[in-house]
Write a structure and sequence with these properties.
This protein is mainly alpha-helical. 80% of the residues lie in helices and 0% in strands. It has one domain (8-73). The chain has helices at residues 2-6, 9-32, 42-62, 65-75, 77-81. Keywords: Membrane, Transmembrane, Transmembrane helix. The chain crosses the membrane at residues 12-33, 39-60.
């Protein structure tokens, strides 16, 4: 989180990787209990959706041009002023 606030491109890349991993974890979770999903309580069904939603939102956020521009300006603000 600190890297994203400071404007680090490697932190943005790490956030993208975490988003992809969340999607994979969500997919594996659904495959693990796929046959039993209709018998699970609603709270457990919603918990299976959390990695999908979080991963997709993180990927969407980190791929937006305004986020990339903000990170670039944040990282190189001191260089432009000098």
């Amino acid at each position: 989180m600190v890297g994203l606030v400071r404007g680090s491109e490697s932190a943005r890349t790490l956030a993208v990787v975490v988003g992809v991993l969340n999607l994979l974890v969500g997919l594996l979770g659904v495959f693990q209990v796929g046959a039993l999903i209709s018998y699970l309580p609603l709270t457990l069904q919603l918990q299976l959706a959390v990695p999908f939603v979080f991963g997709a939102y993180l990927l969407w956020c980190m791929s937006q041009e305004d986020v990339k521009t903000w990170l670039y300006k944040r990282a190189f603000a001191g260089v432009a002023d000098a």
